[in-house]
Every structure is written in structure tokens, then in C-alpha cells.
Amino acid sequence: MGSVNFINEERPLKIYFIPYLASGHLIPQSDIARLFASRGHHVTVLTTPSNAQLFLKSNPYRHHNYRVQTFQFPSDQVGLPAGIENLAGITTVDDSYKLYYGTMLLQEPLTNFIEQDPPDCIVGDFLYPWLHDLAIKLRIPRFAFNGFSLFTICAMESLRLHRMQPTGPYLIPDLPHKITMNAVPPKFPKDFLEVLLETEAKSDGLLVNNFLELDGEEYVQYYKKITGHKAWHLGPACLVRRTSEEKAERGPEKSVLNVEDCLSWLDSRGANSVVYVSFGTVCHFPDNQLYEIACGVEASGCEFIWVVPEKKGKESESEEEKEKWLPKGFEERNKKKGIIIRGWAPQVLILGHSAVGAMLTHCGWNSTSEAVSAGVPMITWPLHSDQFYNEKLISEVRGIGVEIGVDEWGVYCYGQKEKVVGRVEIEKGVRRLMDGGDEAEQIRRRVQEFKKKAREAVQEGGSSYNNLTSLIHEIKRLRDSKLHEFE
Ligand code: UDP
Asked: Residue 170 region, left (φ>0) first, then alpha (ψ -120 to 50), else beta?
């Protein structure tokens, strides 16, 4: 890489963001795009029509420097109903393959668009490794995004480096903390994750939706040491949304309940009295697991908000169907005690309310970072992917949550029969944080400290704020350098 004599600091950047079609990728990338827009740069998000609504509405930059370019999703070609363009709308394994195939078919129109009007830089989802060759061809820098915490990426990289395919509980080699994993990841199709991580490491840098203080400087150093690659902590990106309207409008769908009703219900509850239960956008537990959750939460005696994804194609549910997942009389008994949200919940607003005392979570990284940003301790129940590593960061490394004790990967996505977590464990987990006591108090205090640090990180002079400034400078340097070389 050669040196650059002149960097045009005045000329704004033109950046394309290309997120995968899943809310867990679209939401943080749309927020990171806002961060760049808030500094006067021109951002364009490339996505499909039904996902486009995620990026606009109350977005304060939408009339100025924040554009969304849409590409028709090839619904007919892949055999998905019109409008199903997000993993959150998928309820069968078959359909998840169709969605993946559809995203692959988007490569051609996206490539044509980018080639005809190239930006100064691409921020590309790691699930689109083909962006690597395109960026090289066009001689533009490419930054990668995968939606994981750096702690988790370090754990994955460590396993990759040591070519580990664990068959039982295992210690993650060389990590700054001694972490033993009980849940054994399944064997992926050979090289799938390997190729994605390799391509990611060939980018000009990795954008991380976290703040340095939560991952820890030691993980930035570790990552650099084992990959030679730089990670830029820019988050928590959810904090870029400031008004209630912006916070409420994040999903592929509108919240199913009136946001004001939800907030006024929370207003009527005491501080830290409500447990918020949500497992993200992809998990569709089978009825018997939902039943155990209902029993466990009810037995804990806590007030609750429980988000249960809607069964697609089911306009209404008979009493008989309902009793398969909800104990008889549950709603009547808990009329005053809790709310069940069937569908999309205004999660960031809920977590930000002082009545919420804990979150029972699958440890998806967005949910984790939103809980930390709101100072809400977590009861962890990971399901798959990065979630088991995130759990360790929450419970063992930072001490801001307690484990429910799940030690088996499951898909739990589309109602398959899998090992069920029983009501007793669920009740125990909820009580551990909600019933008070020294342990819960200490955890609550620590997560409040991280909340403060998260807010400081994104303010002027904070770590994420300064990282964004340096990153913008770096992208300008790459843009203005004709000497930029690609691997
Ligand atoms: N989310 C929401 N309302 C819901 C369900 C999810 O706002 O009812 C948001 C949540 O706030 C988070 C994202 O969807 O930003 C889910 O991402 P996460 O990484 O936690 O889990 P995933 O869905 O990717 O498993």
C-alpha cells in the first residue's frame, strides 16, 4: 500500500450498504448507514422492496443523503409467495433454502447496478462473499459486516485457526479468557463458514456493531494478532435512533400492538418488575416448548411481556389450537400480569422502559446489544450460530446475565421437535434475576455500568464516535489513493 499525498476531506463519501435479507442483518446495517449519514455522507442501501420500508419512514436523513435502491426479489423463480423477502417471514426449512437461493439470484442485478454507478466504498454482508471479486474489479474498498460481536468472531477464528471440530465440551484455544463451551456446534457443509470468514478477512476491515468496552481491547488485539485484520467498533448502532417513532419502526412489519398502549401498560408497573421474553426473528418454537415457557414464566410470579411469533397463514386460532401452546385459562389468570405479543414487538422501546427488569433472550447479537444499551440484565437461552459464544460474553466474561443452562444446539426455527427446556429451569432462571438478592444486584449494577459506557461510546469523543471519524478518514484515504492495492 502506498502513501497518499492528498486526501479530499471535504468531499463526502458515497457508500453502498448491502445487507443480507434477514432482520438481524438489515437492522444493524441500516443503523450503521445512518451513522455515516449523520456525518453528511451519502449512503445507499441496496435491498428488496418489502425490506425497504425498514430504512425509511421516520429516518431523519431520508430526504437528504440516505437512499434505498430496491431490486425485485425473484419470488416466482424461487417459489416463494410475493412479499416474503426476509428470513423473519420464513416458517419452513424448505422456504429458508428458497430465500437463500433468491438472495443468490440477486447477485446479477446488484452487480449491474454497482458497476454502472460505483460508490467510493462497499459495506457488504459476509453472506455475500461474491462482493470481494466485484470490489477488486472496480478497485473500490470493501468493508465486511457479519452482525457478530468481536468476542464471538475471535472464538470462531480461534476454532478455524486450530482446525477444531469439537465432539464434546471444549476449551476455546488461546482466547484472552478461559472459555469452555458445552454446546457442540453441528458439522456444517465443508468449508461453508471457512470461506465466509476467509473472505471477510480479505476485506479492508470489519465493521462491528458493538462498543470497544464491551468486547474488550484484548479481543481487538487478539483479532489483529490471529487474522492481521482490523475491526472497527462503531456501536451500539441502535443508539442512533433517538425518537420513539424511530425506535418503534425497525421491523419488516408494524408492531402488532399499539405502542402507546404497551408503554402505558409498562408505566403502570413498578421498576424492574417485568421480564421481557423474546427469541428474535427466526426462532419458531414448537407448541410444547411454548407451553413450558408459559408455565415457567407464570410460576416465577413475575409480570411479563412475551413475544411469540405469529404462525404465518393463520389468521385466527381456535381455543383448541391455542391450548396446545398456552395452558388453559392462562390469559384470563394473567390479564393484569402480562402481555403476549403475537408478532412484531417494539423491542427497543420496551427494553428502554424502567419497568423492565430482565430479558429472557436467545442471545442474538442485536438483542444483546440492545439490552446492554438499555441496562437490562439477561437470562440467556442460546439456540444456535453465534448465540452460544454471545452467552459466554454475557455470563462469564462481563457478568451481566445468568445462563438458563442450555447445552445443545437446536434449530428451533421452524417448529421441529427438539430438546425442550423445562418449566423448572425457566422459572429458576427468571427468579435468579427477578427475585433480587446479591447476585442479581451485582449483575444489575454491572449492566448499568455498561449502559453508561455504551452511551459514552457513541457520544462525541467516545470510542465508537472516534472510530467512525477514523474510519471515514481511512475510507477517504483509500478512495483518494490510486495506489490502493487489493489482494
Ligand atoms: N426485533 C424487534 N421486535 C421483535 C423481534 C425482534 O424489534 O418482535 C428486533 C430486535 O430488536 C433485534 C432484531 O429484531 O434488533 C433481532 O436480531 P437478533 O440479532 O437479536 O436476533 P435474530 O432475529 O437475528 O435471531
From this structure: beta
